[in-house]
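=== RUN LOG ===
request id: a7f3
mode: sequence -> structure
chains: 1
length: 365
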Amino acid sequence: MTTTALGIPLFGVRGGRGGSAADQRDGLPHSSRPDRPGLIDSHGRQAIDLRVSLTDKCNLRCTYCMPAEGLDWLPGQELLTDAELLRLIGIAVGRLGVTEIRFTGGEPLLRKGILGLVQSVGRLPQRPEMSLTTNGIGFARRAAAFAAAGLDRVNISMDTLQRDTFKTLTRRDRHADVVAALEGAVAAGLAPVKINTVLLRGINDHEAADLLDFSIARGYHLRFIEQMPLDAGHEWNRTAMVTADEIQAALSARFTLTPHPLARAGAPAELFTVDGGPATVGIIASVTRPFCGDCDRTRLTADGQIRNCLFARGETDLRGMLRGGGTDDEIADVWRMAMWRKLPGHGINDPSFLQPDRPMSAIGG
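=== RESULT ===
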């Protein structure tokens, strides 16, 4: 087996329990990968979008994500430092062809020093586009500072227009903070401001059209996301999930939706023009309308693991290389091979599918 100068296997991954036969594929021969610098895989895709999880902690307790008591957070010493994060982002942008960075969590605003990190990434010689996915708690008062630091865009999660429903879903009374965050993002010039919404059957699924009305009136770009099997309790149930077809039908009862003329490329959202435009709405149907063939993402967890798919059951350790003296060339090569091994799809609809051990809060959105 090929190893780096540090003796780290180029094909080694840190795996989860079990998995399908496809999950156990340990990688294609190193020599089969074309000599190209980017993050290509054996199915013809190239990752240019890096999702960077800054923390697994969150200040909400959304019922579809984690239990009321929270989770056991990663020990501080296991998290990447700001310097380590900046180094890996620099390798991704400077050597691996990444052009977009999205900071995620957990809740990324809980990461101390996040503004400085955004500013530092913005100073890289090959500056990437930078965006942030947040629940919005505390963002309103910091929106201008993020814009000044170089942040380009922001996605804010909001599943309901109702304060009481928000309390039910998140176990926190912070709905007003999220509304303020949306307004603050617009005022800071972080446009277009996107809203991420997950509908849950019998709880907020009746609000689909109202949420779109709200978004259009204020110039927000709304994206509905099918609930995915990434909850901490592994209690996801396909029959309870509100599907893309159901979302589209609920919206079509009030609006005329037509497929948007622009190709989605690697974007996860299937876009529709609303009532002839210019307003649009997106549906991210990871479960019922998979878009794996167009995926252009690579993921870095807060503790320094590369995931080549949101639903991967194996990870590639870069933190060990960073702290063991690995060179930028070695790290880049291991990252390339991690992506070369990427499977053709997530396999959610395969009978052998097993949910990743890590929940979404620990993987990063």
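=== NOTES ===
The two ends are 33 Å apart (CA to CA).
The chain has one domain: 14-363.
=== END ===
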